[in-house]
Design a protein that fits this description.
Blueprint (H helix, E strand, L loop, with lengths): L40 H5 L11 H17 L7 E4 L6 E3 L3 H6 L6 H11 L5 H13 L7 E3 L1 H8 L5 E5 L3 H12 L7 E4 L3 H4 L11 E5 L7 H16 L4 E7 L4 H16 L4 E7 L25 E7 L5 H16 L6 E7 L3
Parallel strand pairs: 1-4, 1-6, 4-5, 6-7
Antiparallel strand pairs: 2-3, 7-9, 8-9, 8-10
Helix pairs in contact: 2-5, 2-6, 2-11, 9-10
The structure holds S-adenosylmethionine.
Length: about 350
């Protein structure tokens, strides 16, 4: 049976001071991966703020996979390098104006927890690990804080491991640096206000040849899709045994459909094993006339319905873990009959 109070607690500081990356944020929610007609790289990039999306179904998928990979990498004594090329602000409040405006966590983390309690059952082990991490940031059994990928990494990694966080947005980079400062972990974590696709190169290969790169762009500009595959191609030359985890949105856009295909081709060309997981929680069709209304009285936009994770050189345990966790995610976060998942692997270990 799932008991919320039974989850693990951590030694990390619990009372974080929050740097609000979206001050005065009563803006319309930013729709990840749906930007078009780029009028300039920076103006498009700067329109995305993860504070609107923290704890949504895509974060549940991405962070469950991230946690499974890191737990595997940290099981051996050897020092590990983790690079987050698109880090965001690091910590988010689920009761902030930005999170409340979008309400996305109610179809993600909050739906997952509510249904688990309702159904009185235990989640699959990988989801349990995800919820354990979440619980350690929310000791009062109320989900107010959402740890982004930088804090998930720092929570699971050891003092001798290194974490490099790239964030290019000035406000989010400032918020991230402020959040990381509170950890007082010195040189273990570095925040770099640089283009992650470029800056990443200087850290590969890591000295101990053990590492993970998380690539999680906002895809506000369609060139991000090509930049991901070019960057992965370059990374595989520099550090062919590294684990690479790429998140992408499943949206009706050619570049989005092509990305997993390109990553598969790159893995095959480098003779590396790969894993491809997708999660759909609802129909991606525009809301119909009878759809629920938003606070502005207009039919609610359906928002992102599906996303995928492509992992090159996945831990050999990841496939089995996701075989159990993905159907659970569909069951616990599915919004309609279109909810589904897929899991595919290739190459050999
Ligand atoms: C989806 S969010 C990251 C979320 C984070 N990985 C997590 O899981 O908590 C993407 C972030 O990338 C930043 N960004 C966009 N382009 C970038 C680039 N070229 N280099 C570094 N950061 C970038 C955006 O400002 C945004 O904060």
């Amino acid at each position: 049976m799932f008991r919320r109070g039974a989850t693990k607690r951590c030694e990390s500081p619990r009372l974080y001071k929050f740097r609000d990356p979206c001050p005065g944020a009563a803006l319309p929610a930013q729709t990840r991966g749906c930007g078009d007609n780029a009028s300039g790289y920076h103006s498009r990039m700067f329109s995305y703020r993860h504070a609107y999306h923290a704890g949504n179904h895509a974060d549940v998928l991405k962070h469950t996979v991230l946690i499974a990979i890191l737990k595997h990498l940290c099981a051996k004594e050897t020092e590990v390098l983790a690079v987050d090329t698109h880090a965001g602000a690091g910590l988010y409040r689920l009761d902030s104006a930005a999170a409340q405006t979008s309400g996305e966590s109610s179809e993600g983390l909050l739906a997952l927890v509510a249904r688990l309690v309702q159904r009185q059952r235990a989640p699959a082990p990988a989801l349990r690990d995800y919820l354990d991490v979440l619980a350690s940031f929310n000791p009062d059994d109320v989900y107010k804080v959402y740890p982004g990928s930088p804090f998930v990494m720092q929570h699971l990694m050891r003092r001798n491991d290194k974490i490099k966080l790239f964030e290019w947005h000035p406000s989010d980079a400032r918020a991230l640096a402020g959040h990381v400062d509170q950890l007082r972990v010195g040189r273990q974590v570095a925040v770099l206000r640089e283009d992650g696709f470029v800056g990443l190169r200087k850290f590969l290969p890591p000295p101990a040849r053990r590492g993970l790169v998380l690539m999680d762009p906002s895809y506000e500009i369609k060139t991000d899709y090509a930049r991901v595959s070019e960057c992965i191609q370059d990374c595989l030359k520099r550090f062919s045994t590294g684990t690479y985890a790429v998140w992408y949105p499943i949206i009706p856009r050619m570049e989005a459909h092509d990305l997993p295909r390109r990553l598969k081709t790159l893995s095959l060309q480098s003779q590396k094993p790969w894993l491809h997981a997708t999660l759909t929680i609802k129909s991606g069709q525009q809301a119909s006339a009878g759809a629920a209304l938003g606070s502005d009285g207009k039919p609610k936009r359906p928002g992102l319905a599906a996303s995928g994770m492509f992992v090159i050189n996945p831990p050999y345990t990841l496939n089995e873990q996701l075989k159990a966790a993905l159907p659970d995610m569909v069951d616990l976060m599915g919004q309609d009959k279109h909810a589904t998942h897929s899991l595919e692997v290739g190459g050999t270990h």
